[in-house]
Specification:
The structure holds two protein chains of two kinds. Chain A is α/β, with parallel strands linked by helices. Chain A has helices spanning 46-54, 73-78, 94-104, 110-119, 133-145, 163-176, 190-193, 214-221, 225-240, and strands spanning 7-15, 21-30, 35-39, 61-66, 79-82, 151-155, 182-187, 199-204, 207-213. The radius of gyration of chain B is 18 Å and the shape is elongated.
């Protein structure tokens, strides 16, 4: 079993025009069949990394290999991407979106989408503009999860929904995705999702702070990943302060 | 019995303990089938790989046997199960005596109180 890793990043760097370095020489390897949390405080580079993986941004330096290839037509066909905002025209109905996805992606399962929408009691004929924010997010997630992709990239999939919907989303991630597929989801709500993750990638100021399995961190630190990182950042806040404490 | 996961320890260890408990208590009887990994993982709300790791540990301890065709079953060797059951009971007993000692009771007193409590309707 010497498969190539799904994702290999070498010295990946992204510097925006204004000079801000969003990602700073990041080396990272992600394997197949894993559920991975991409964690970090605001501005740590999570969304930049996801957009680079999707091919929506170009690296300033370094290389990205997904299933051995640079981001392009092929990688886009194996990636199912959930952006951090809605990108569909709001006049569309749920059923239009299903047709849209079925046209666009050969790995899209209409049946799977319909059954998930049914479970969530989301009407097919409702227009997106008449939906609540939470419902819209659910529709979007259903579409993304109904693809038989190799790599699911989700930017903050649980940020804007109520706790019940959050449970549904986590359950969907656990039970519905392709077993060989890898899920990378970004969040800063660690506690809620810790137990569904195999491993975590923690970014800080565009650098890799730690990449480890959840149980390894718990074993070594004797505390949950959530608490571990809260403590990391509490220390940092004091050190970075003006010292008048 | 629900799955009960705490914050401070590795998840797979806690799952392994609770699976062991289910076997010791007879909820998963000797020779009986263990539900598929995916089902167990969904029930506990954990990652299938983590549940897999917990099951592997029980396999190593000989509590679970994997056959190519029938999936996972609880061992038919009841001596392994009784040994584990006794070990678990031992832990509870030790804990009882430890707590009673902290309260200042001697061993005989602790035993007497236990019997008395048991005989009170």
């Amino acid at each position: 079993m010497t498969q190539t890793p799904l994702v290999q990043l070498q010295q990946l760097t992204k510097q925006y025009e204004k000079g801000k370095v969003a990602l700073d020489h990041l080396d990272l390897t992600l394997c197949r069949g894993r559920t991975i949390g991409l964690l970090g405080p605001n501005g740590s580079g999570k969304t930049t990394l996801i957009k680079l993986l999707c091919g929506l941004l170009q690296p300033s330096f370094g290389t990205i290999r997904i299933d051995g290839q640079a981001p392009g037509v092929y990688t886009k066909s194996i990636i199912s991407y959930l952006p951090d905002q809605i990108y569909f025209p709001l006049w569309m109905k749920t059923t239009d979106l299903i047709d849209f996805f079925a046209d666009f992606y050969t790995d899209f399962s209409r049946q799977k989408a319909l059954s998930m929408l049914d479970t969530l009691s989301i009407p097919l004929q409702q227009r997106l503009k008449n939906m609540s924010k939470g419902t819209l997010e659910k529709v979007q997630l259903v579409l993304v999860m109904s693809r038989q992709a190799q790599f699911y990239l989700m930017d903050e999939p649980i940020a804007g929904v109520d706790p019940a919907a959050r449970d549904f989303i986590l359950n969907t991630i656990l039970t519905n995705y392709n077993e060989e597929g890898t899920v990378l989801l970004s969040t800063h709500l660690i506690g809620d999702i810790e137990r569904v993750l195999d491993e975590v990638v923690f970014l800080q100021n565009g650098r890799l702070l730690r990449h480890d399995t959840v149980d390894q961190i718990r074993e070594q630190e004797g505390m949950s990943v959530d608490r571990y990182f809260r403590e990391q950042f509490r220390t940092e806040a004091l050190v970075g302060g003006n010292g008048r404490w | 019995m629900q799955w009960n996961l705490t914050e401070d320890r590795p998840i797979y260890l806690q799952l392994a303990e609770q699976l062991t408990q289910r076997i010791a208590s007879g909820r998963y009887p000797s020779g009986g089938r263990i539900p598929p990994v995916r089902d167990l993982a969904a029930e506990a709300g954990v990652n299938p790989n983590t549940m897999q790791r917990a099951l592997s540990q029980l396999e190593q301890e000989g509590l679970i046997v994997t056959n190519r065709t029938a999936g996972r079953t609880v061992t038919e060797d009841t001596s392994i199960i009784s040994a584990v059951r006794e070990r678990l009971a031992q832990t509870h007993i030790d804990q009882y005596f430890f707590q009673m000692t902290t309260l200042g009771y001697g061993t005989q007193e602790a035993i007497d109180l236990l019997v008395k409590r048991r005989n009170t309707p």
